[in-house]
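Box 4.2: Ligand-aware structure prediction
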Amino acid sequence: MRKLAAGNWKMNGLAENLSELDNLTQAHPSPNVDILICPPAPLLMQAALQSPVVQIGAQDCHAKTNGAHTGDISPDLIKSIGATSVILGHSERRQDHGETNEQIAAKTQAAHAAGLIAVVCIGETHLQRLENETLDVLAAQLAGSLPASSTAENTVVAYEPVWAIGTGLVPTDQQIDQAHAFIRDTLVARFGDTAKEIRLLYGGSVKASNADAIFQIKNVDGALVGGASLKASDFSPIINALENTL
Ligand code: 13P
């Protein structure tokens, strides 16, 4: 499988920050891994036009293809402007917008139908980890958020412990290993052996300084990076670390 270095800009970046895509392209003219940047929605089209090497993704989409849904964006529109992917079910959307597993599954199915790769995010809160509920939470989120249409080609699963996002806290290697092994086994049990090829990303305070160690862990096929994806100078060493695993 081709590994994936994905950047989630969240609600950061202005039009002028798209120059970071040029910097990334210059640093990685022919990468051996997939590079994906997910900027805020108004920047998507220019980003997709601008970057021949870096793939572009949205941070959310609606479950319908069109209609009276003010402020929402359809997966078909995202696909039509040249984006390849969409992040779905990020914990910030689950929290800020009350998104449920059912809604995420519907959006993921719509993304698949539009020909997009869905990067579906799951992960436990700090309290859930303290109460030993991590694997139960992951199982419920996987079962609830992934539709039957999920394949290794159209789906990426990102394990993002909520307590590790933007905090500088990172799970131990053993904790990441356990979560990723569990996710892999759960996917194979549901979708069969082809699920061995579904890319599993780790996300949560990934930086140049910890990327090497994280990428050594089994079943970690890349990263979903927030803060350290905003500048090419921060993201590029993470891409290099992933390429160094090949
Ligand atoms: P940080 O890398 O800033 O912790 O964010 C991770 C994340 O939420 C990516 O989707």
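In the box above, the bound molecule is 1,3-dihydroxyacetonephosphate. The chain has one domain: 4-243.
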